[in-house]
Amino acid sequence: MIKALVSKVYHDTENNKIENIKLQAFIVCIASAVCISLDEYFGQANFTFDFLHQVGLHKIADAYANIVNDKLYALACWVGVIVLFYGLVPLAIIKFVFKDKFSNYGLGIKGALKDYKIYLLMIAIMMPLVFTASFTESFQHKYPFYKLQAGEGLYPRFLAWELLYLIQFFAVEFFFRGFMVHGNKKRFGFYSILVMTIPYCMIHFGKPLPETLAAIIAGLVLGVLSLKSNSIWLGVAIHFSVAITMDFCSLWQNGFLFK
Q1: SS3 content of the chain, % helix, strand, coil (to 5)
Q2: Domain residues for 36?
């Protein structure tokens, strides 16, 4: 009798664990879809301006319109939207809904340097490709996001933008390789990487085609490394290293460096 009771309690406990894992995966997938959608729309200045007017916040809408007339401030607002929906919202879900540790979602320091040789190899592969791509018109038109004006130096506004760019990459890496991969791994295992890679590729729509296709490979590789090491930090490092190289290659091609 006691053995049967213990078996039932264990069975019920296991069932609860399975149901909790399924529920967490459901929440991660739905929250991810909502966050990506909100980021896409509120990341557009015109949409945000119209939305503020529609909800009756006319003064805030007008102030916002004045702010985004300045390119750097407009980019800062864009980064703010990304940080909100890719960073703060998932962090709140982990803290208050899952009641879990942030370190379980790729933010831990332990193991952060694991497989660093693979990251260095990725950088070694990407740098020549970036340099080659920088000769194309589509690349030079797209990057950097903050366009220098004639006679404008790198300091302070361009360097301020690069700092904002770094913050943006942290939020993006955490959302895709942290929240989505580690939030789904108990339910889908390795396939949590595939679940993440599809929307990660799609957020690159509008960029040059080679970059969008490369995002599929990058998403897979960075997802595997994050899942293996339980850390996103080297992913942030390589993402920003490639991005800042792209920006400076474009500046060089347009005559803003080494005059």
Answers
A1: 80, 0, 20
A2: 2-253
